Amino acid sequence: MAARENGAESGPRGPYDVLVIGGGNAALCAAISASRDGARVLVLEAAPRFYRGGNTRHTRNMRCAHDTATEILTGPYTEDEFFDDLLRVTGGQTDEELARHMIHESKDMLNWIVEQGVRFQPSLGGTLSLGRTNSFFLGGGRSMLNELYRTAEGLGVEVAYDSEVVALDIDDGTFRAATVRRGDALVRIEARALVAAAGGFEANIDWLKEGWGEVAENFLIRGTPYNRGTVLKMLMAAGVETIGDPTQCHAVAIDARAPKFDGGIITRLDCVVFGIVVNNRCERFYDEGEDIWPKRYAIWGRLVAAQPDQIAYIIFDARSLELFMPSLFPPISGASIAELAGKLGLDAEKLTATVEGFNAAVQPGTFDDKTLDDCRTVGLSPPKTHWARRIETAPFYAYPVRPGITFTYLATRIDREARMRMADGRPARNMFAAGEIMAGNVLGRGYAAGIGMTIGSVFGRIAGREAASNARQ
Amino acid sequence: MLANERIHATDTLAEADRLMTVCNSCRYCEGLCAVFPAMEMRRSFADGDLNYLANLCHGCGACYHDCQFSPPHEFDVNVPRTLAVARADSYRAFAWPRAFAPLFDRNGLAVSLIAALGVAGFILAFAAWHDRDVLFGTHLDAGAFYALMPHNAMALLFGGVFLYAMVAVGMGLRAFWNDIGEPAATLVAPKPLWQAINDAGRLRYLDGGGVGCMNESDKPDDNRRFYHHCTFYGFMLCFAATCVATLYHYLLGREAPYPIYDLPVLLGTAGGVGLLIGPAGLLAAKLRRERILVDEARLGMDVAFLVMLFLTSLTGLTLLAFRESAAMGLLLAVHLGVVFALFFTMPYGKFVHGLYRFAALVRYAREMARHGDDAAA
């Protein structure tokens, strides 16, 4: 069974109409959509079967526009509101035409993806603030992937695991074949059209260092170790135009004790708003209460990356311990701030002084973690503008945090048909892209929960359709 | 990985604690069944909490295939198997009387021996009490069975062993209920009780979140819910047949065997057919189940219970088919021996899963109602 699924006995035999490189949400949406349009499709997944699907394994929901509430969504989320949210998180760094196109197409995605077997559920514990905008996969991203793979295989899509693409034969904007490493053998696979959906380069520390410098050594990679950007790099070498800043990525602050790769959602910490965040010099560096957490969680990866040794500590007291989602590792605790500092390897006097300075600046207010409350500091720099309560009730707690990279934004430039553009400005003849590998077209920086999956599904579906159409010509 | 430093009675419970800590940080599976919403109402997990969650789990397997951290991932999250082991451990831990707890250790062997002894006992007793003519004679009239064993003796023996089984499982249930720390009043509160009857009666949580269970692979293709319904309702029909027959005997003075069209035979036959199809289907599913989801050490317990149910039905239906022949005496002895062994081993085998799971569902219904009230307040 396993051997047959892995294709190890015979292996894929070309030529195919559409070759999809990658095995996540974008790749499978492309494969399904191309196959439904009559194309013979091969999916090349570099990872083994268990790790198939790139970062989709770690996802949970997608953000789609909709005009009315549904069984699973608590209210309407118009295209304009979606676009406003995107503008806000990216600071305007988005291709407006592509973004509006994606948002428009996202409306039908709620139906289309369900037709491909994916099941949704209402948002429940810990995610209620996204109940109006985001649709949650029943069983999470791996469940969603399992359904997509079942649907694709039912349509006759061939899937080859452990199949890393090591070379692309591209001639003047025309894709001809890919060379694939399968075991010890190199296999050349020809196809009439290419969909590149192989993810970003977040797991390639050396590439991250090219943009970030040595500090990238201290980054944790939240998802798959297989997204090393080899396909992106080959496309760049073949003259495909890129868009985006190589240092831009979806980066959050995660538990510093997480494994280097693939720690996923469970090392996430939602407690920044309940305490203060200091660097290893015991200094605060940003307003912890700027906005409600789902709107701000994605800025903290970059903030921590800018601190000495790329580490910071969230400090809070006993009153806040149960106000946020639990996470994998228990917090470090101390009977006093000084004792806590000792356990964290921080200067006890300095940390005590920082906490005391913060406590002295806290104004009286009515604490409410559901709204932008009036608990704030006065005369403190940087200020804490909401949810500022004195850190005074023992025991005291801390979580060490490091930047956790989710995915990178440096992208292949595409058009509305998901067709790649060459560096000389001409459209590629038969090459399309979907997912993380082209996310930078829409996401110049920043992040909004669930938008990575929207990008993958919408452009995956478009890329598959266009590649199938292209292959028929 | 740092585990939460809590003390647990067993390594399995410590592992269950580790897994629930992982799962509570993720919660992607919260729409699949009752276990994860119940988990979310807690931030730490004492032994009683874990025994409760373990018995709430129906073992559908969906969370294993939906989990991004299941093996070979380094977090090694295997909730179905860990909870299956914890569940079976809990049956042993709550066994009454304590001295019989070891019957859970090699349960397949124990149940087989008791069943063999039961059958042999009835055959020998019949042979000892009656001469060959009675044992191998043909009996056609009402009261024919009682030529071999007086009705009062039969009622006393089976009533006794049934009563014993009920007391023993009742004591086990009491120990379980104390362990999970729920007040006794919950068990008689009408709303949670009715909810639990609904959830158990439909096997609401044995459906992989809506697509069916995952048994052999990540493809939901399992019919365990169907086979379990055959088994459970088959069992209940057989039980109803016995009750009707008892009423016939004492209220109407009508003695078995009853005509083929009469209610006890109809109920018993329908139930018997369910008790053939159901256990056979469940056994086949059990043997085909992915090994990584299975509590291998307790496979014998599961098999023994299914085989006992199957044999109960098979011997009963065979008796019905050949009750007018000379084999009736022997068939009756075999059937009664199997039924006796089934009742006697009930408190010390897989049978108890239904009671503990039902109790867990009652508690879950109560918790959810309370949780809803809190959220609304």
UniProtKB/TrEMBL annotation, chain A:
Domain of life: Bacteria
UniProt xrefs under InterPro entries: CobZ, FAD-dep_OxRdtase_2_FAD-bd, FAD-oxidoreductase_2, FAD/NAD-bd_sf, Succ_DH/fumarate_Rdtase_cat_sf
Pfam family, one: FAD_binding_2
Gene Ontology MF terms in the entry: oxidoreductase activity
Keyword field contains DNA repair: no
Domain FAD-dependent oxidoreductase 2 FAD-binding as annotated: residue spans: 17-444
Keyword Oxidoreductase annotated: yes
Keywords on record: FAD, Flavoprotein, Oxidoreductase
Cofactor: FAD
Stated name of the protein: FAD-dependent tricarballylate dehydrogenase TcuA
Species of origin: Ancylobacter mangrovi
TrEMBL record, chain B:
The entry's keywords: Membrane, Transmembrane, Transmembrane helix
Residue stretches spanning the membrane: 108-129, 149-173, 232-251, 263-287, 299-322, 328-348
Protein's name according to its UniProt entry: Tricarballylate utilization 4Fe-4S protein TcuB
Upper lineage: Bacteria, Pseudomonadati, Pseudomonadota, Alphaproteobacteria, Hyphomicrobiales
Listed Gene3D superfamilies: Transmembrane di-heme cytochromes, Chain C (1.20.950.20)
